Automatic annotation (TrEMBL):
Biological classification of the source: Bacteria, Bacillati, Bacillota, Negativicutes, Selenomonadales
Compartment(s) of residence: Cytoplasm
GO molecular-function terms, A-Z: 7S RNA binding; GTP binding; GTPase activity
Reactions that this protein is recorded to catalyse: GTP + H2O = GDP + phosphate + H(+)
Annotated GTP binding sites: 108-115, 190-194, 248-251
Biological role: Involved in targeting and insertion of nascent membrane proteins into the cytoplasmic membrane. Binds to the hydrophobic signal sequence of the ribosome-nascent chain (RNC) as it emerges from the ribosomes. The SRP-RNC complex is then targeted to the cytoplasmic membrane where it interacts with the SRP receptor FtsY.
UniProt domain comment: Composed of three domains: the N-terminal N domain, which is responsible for interactions with the ribosome, the central G domain, which binds GTP, and the C-terminal M domain, which binds the RNA and the signal sequence of the RNC.
Entry keyword Transport: no
Name of this chain's protein: Signal recognition particle protein
Tagged with keyword Transcription: no
Primary subcellular site in the record, as a coarse category: cytoplasm
Keywords on record: Cytoplasm, GTP-binding, Hydrolase, Nucleotide-binding, Ribonucleoprotein, RNA-binding, Signal recognition particle
């Protein structure tokens, strides 16, 4: 499970601290040195770690800790608060338009989990009594269209696809017309990915964005790729603008660096976490629960 290594390291550090009773500044500094190492080993962005430790140190050598009867508890609370803040503070939801359909565009590199996530998101919305329409916008891989159609069948939800000739912008426009005429209140557009970011991909995504004006552009990134995921998020956000990130494969043994860095580096909140291959395995991302998971 994600954060396992980090959680072990931090829990050991705090166990030592708890054994101390009253804390000196040196005790706090030593603990912070260990926290810093643990975060770097978890592949958290270097600058993010630096800022994070700075903030904690400032609070931890202040009065609220030094004069407390349970200083170690106070330090842990501060780390918990700051970890929560680092991951976005509060839960970030997707915008639901007051004039349906709400259009959600999923973007990301090939293999990140975009198509699977489209299905997961559709299921989650269906459970909230929404009427999602899945849209096959990846025209370059016939297998991707098929994959989405299979998901649609499993979920008993319609999939809008045009199998030959149409470009992704036309497909998206027609899909929204279809949603209007068939009373679908959520449109989830699965777009094409590439192995790497390139100009052609960005141009295509920008054209779709400019034409259909989605309410949400969600970037799907693979947590297993660590800082690469953060770099991908930064580029997509600069080039296209991203409203939120969906971090997939958090059920694997990702070290957690992406989860802890992406908001601080890009400003984009993580909105959902993919926790497995099954369609039910999508969770809303709660920064406070993630922080508690790390601190045990
Ligand atoms: P796409 O190319 O971005 O559309 O990626 P796919 O949706 O085809 O997913 C690529 C692979 O990642 C598939 O084998 C999925 O089952 C797997 N996958 C997607 N999300 C998750 C997740 O949250 N956890 C795990 N373990 N696997 C996932």
């Amino acid at each position: 499970m994600v954060f396992e290594g980090l959680a072990d390291r931090l829990q050991q550090t705090f166990k030592k601290l708890r054994g101390r009773g009253k804390l000196s500044e040196a005790d706090v500094s030593e603990a912070m040195r260990e926290v810093r190492m643990a975060l770097l080993e978890a592949d958290v962005n270097f600058k993010v770690v630096k800022d994070f430790i700075g903030k904690i140190k400032e609070r931890a050598v202040g009065q609220e800790v030094m004069q407390s009867l349970t200083p170690a508890q106070q330090v842990i609370k501060i780390v918990n608060d700051e970890l929560t803040e680092l991951m976005g503070g509060t839960q970030s939801r997707i915008t639901i338009s007051s004039r349906p359909p709400t259009v959600v565009m999923l973007v990301g590199l090939q293999g990140a989990g975009k198509t699977t996530t489209a299905g997961k998101l559709a299921l989650s919305l269906k459970k909230q009594n929404k009427r999602p329409l899945l849209v096959a916008g990846d025209i370059y891989r016939p297998a991707a269209i098929k994959q989405l159609q299979v998901l649609g069948e499993q979920l008993d939800l319609p999939v809008f696809a045009i199998e030959s000739g149409a470009n992704p912008v036309t497909i998206a426009e027609r899909a929204i017309e279809y949603a209007h005429s068939h009373a679908r209140d959520m449109v989830i557009i699965d777009t094409a990915g590439r192995l790497h970011i390139n100009e052609e991909l960005m141009q295509e995504l920008k054209s779709i964005k400019n034409t259909v004006k989605p309410h949400e552009i969600l970037l799907v990134v693979d947590a297993m790729t660590g800082q690469d995921a953060v770099n991908v998020a930064e580029t997509f956000n600069n080039e296209l603008g991203v409203d939120g990130v969906i971090l997939t494969k958090l059920d694997g043994d990702a070290r957690g660096g992406a989860a802890l860095s992406v908001k601080a580096v890009t400003g984009c909140p993580i909105k959902f976490a993919g926790m497995g291959e099954k369609l039910e395995a999508l969770e809303s991302f709660h920064p406070d629960r993630m922080a508690s998971r790390i601190l045990g």
